[in-house]
Automatic annotation (TrEMBL):
Transmembrane segments: none annotated. Residues 8-68 form the HTH tetR-type domain. Keywords: DNA-binding. The keyword DNA-binding applies. GO terms for molecular function: DNA binding. The keyword DNA-binding applies. This is Transcriptional regulator, TetR family. Residues 31-50 bind DNA. InterPro entries: Homeodomain-like_sf, HTH-type_Tx_Regulator, HTH_TetR, Tet_transcr_reg_TetR-rel_C_sf. It comes from the Bacteria. It comes from Turneriella parva (strain ATCC BAA-1111 / DSM 21527 / NCTC 11395 / H) (Leptospira parva).
């Protein structure tokens, strides 16, 4: 048990070192030697856990994806009451906010390099598709129940997910809304809801 704990701590040390180097040099500019130097571990120790910088990146991304999957599962989209659509959308947005905050360095790496690094871009496709699919299910339930106006739910899911990503990107990359990011997310959702929500009769 003690040995397993030591291995886990060593692996985390490598991942933390990699995040720091990625932030400084970017994914393409990072080598195994850079990560080893930053972690202050032996090169052989690195290879006990990872065989390449790409494997390190994949491990960091996997941590994010596991958290996102857990939040979406907890949200229980299929069981949502259509009358709570706005609150559910707000909960979804704030769950993403929490994940991005917990993995800030890795998310910034994704945002700044996914257009220039095909390997990173490929890793983000899963997240984008999952987010859009989740929002689309929520929208379909709202439309079917008569709570929301009848629009193309796929198109609407692109608009909502794209808006969320942009607001969160502005926050992480440029420091906008640092003091009130949650209220800005709620404001964005309110603006959106004004366009799609039907008035109660």
């Amino acid at each position: 048990m003690r040995q397993e704990k030591r291995k886990e701590l060593t692996r985390e040390k490598i991942l933390e070192a990699a995040k720091a180097v990625f932030a400084q040099k970017g994914y393409a500019g990072t080598s195994i030697a850079d990560v080893v130097k930053k972690s202050k571990l032996a090169r052989g120790t690195f290879y006990l856990h990872f065989q390449s910088v790409e494997q390190v990146l994949n491990a960091l991304l996997q941590e994010i994806f596991i958290d996102i999957q857990r939040y979406l599962t907890d949200l229980q989209v299929e069981a949502l009451d259509h009358k709570n659509f706005k609150r559910a959308l707000s909960d979804l947005a704030k769950s993403l906010l929490s994940v991005f905050q917990n993995h800030r360095e890795t998310v910034i790496l994704l945002l700044t390099t996914m257009n220039s690094e095909p390997k990173i871009r490929a890793q983000t496709v899963w997240f984008q598709e999952l987010l859009q699919a989740t929002i689309r299910v929520m929208l379909d339930r709202g439309i079917t129940s008569g709570r929301l106006k009848k629009h193309d739910s796929e198109l609407m899911s692109f608009l909502v997910s794209g808006g969320l990503r942009e607001v969160l990107s502005q926050w992480l990359l440029f420091g906008r809304y640092n003091r009130d990011i949650e209220s800005k997310v709620d404001e964005m959702i309110s603006i959106y809801m004004n366009g799609v929500e039907l008035e109660e009769k």
